[in-house]
Structures are given as C-alpha cells and as structure tokens.
Design a protein that fits this description.
Elements lengths: L9 H14 L2 H13 L6 H13 L3 H10 L7 H6 L2
Helix pairs in contact: 1-2, 1-3, 3-4
C-alpha cells in the first residue's frame, strides 16, 4: 500500500491494529502505533479502542493506561474507560 504511494488512514489502521491484537504481536502493534503518531492520525473512537485492546492483549497494561491518560475525557467512552479500572 505505502509502496504504491497510498498512505493508510485511520480506518486502515484500525484493521491493522486489530490484527496485531488478535495475533498478540506487540512488536507490530508498537510499530503501527509509532506510525500513527508520526503521521498525526487521529487517535479517537475505534482506533483508540483498538490500540488499548492491543496493549491489553499483549500484557502491556501500563501502556494502555498511558494512552488513555493522554486522551481527553470526550474521547473515552464508558466501556473503554472502565476497562482498566
């Protein structure tokens, strides 16, 4: 995709992060998170949920909490907000 000059957007990243969570592939998930940050993609809604889910499934609760702490209260829904409590 990137080789062909097409940059992934938030929707594409949701699929990729979800796949890394299902595979419990922390290395890939962290690389995707870094890409998301570097490209200034919006980490809200489904993408935020997927990133938190990926970190939790990979056993990185502290990273999931850090991600939530950086987000505004409006970005975190009730289910996601209570996941780490």
């Amino acid at each position: 995709m990137i080789v062909n000059g097409v940059s992934p957007d938030e929707i594409t990243m949701v699929s990729w992060v979800s796949a890394s969570a299902k595979l419990r592939d922390l290395k890939m998930g962290e690389a995707l998170h870094l890409y998301i940050e570097e490209k200034n993609l919006s980490i809200v809604g489904n993408l935020l949920n997927c990133l938190v889910d990926m970190y939790i499934k990979c056993g990185k609760m502290e990273e999931a909490q850090k991600l939530l702490d950086r987000c505004g209260a409006d970005d975190v829904d009730v289910v996601l907000g209570t996941t780490l409590n």
